[in-house]
Backbone:
């Protein structure tokens, strides 16, 4: 304990020592943090593949670890077995399969995020009776909202296909 306290000044001296290398500024560090948070590092196919491998590893490990609760193994043995199987799955999975997983997940997520509000709006139009002006006005507002969603989705689709639609 006393030795570690005696070495504390050395830690501060080496941390405060000036060197010839330039340290990154706060804005550089913040820019890197934002680049990680916005997935800006996925600008190449190799980086996207590495990210998908990491995500597949985490998913496979979680599934195998939770499924291994059905066995009578101890938790540390279950973790090791799940870890080995997840590493094998992530390392030996072909890049085409990883790209397919990413594209499928993205497509399903887009359909859910766009489809749920649209179908809820269509059901609301069907379920709301047209008995008075306020309910008819509510139906018109829902139709206007659905048309707005359609226009926004169409404009993004045209941008995505380079104006071919």
Residues:
């Amino acid at each position: 304990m006393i030795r570690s306290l005696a070495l504390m000044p050395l830690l501060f001296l080496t941390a405060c020592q000036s060197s010839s290398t330039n340290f990154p500024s706060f804005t550089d560090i913040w820019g890197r943090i934002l680049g990680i948070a916005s997935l800006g590092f996925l600008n190449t196919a190799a980086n996207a593949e590495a990210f998908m491998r990491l995500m597949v590893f985490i998913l496979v490990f979680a599934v195998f670890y939770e499924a291994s609760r059905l066995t009578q193994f101890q938790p540390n043995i279950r973790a090791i077995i799940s870890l080995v199987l997840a590493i094998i799955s992530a390392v030996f999975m072909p890049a085409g399969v990883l790209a397919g997983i990413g594209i499928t997940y993205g497509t399903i997520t887009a359909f859910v995020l766009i489809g749920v509000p649209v179908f809820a709006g269509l059901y609301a139009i069907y379920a709301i009776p047209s008995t008075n002006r306020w309910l008819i006005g509510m139906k018109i507002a829902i139709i206007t909202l659905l048309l707005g969603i359609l226009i926004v989705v169409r404009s993004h689709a045209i941008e995505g296909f380079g104006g071919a639609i």
User: Anything to note?
Assistant: The chain is about 80% helix and 0% strand. The first helix runs from residue 2 to 16.
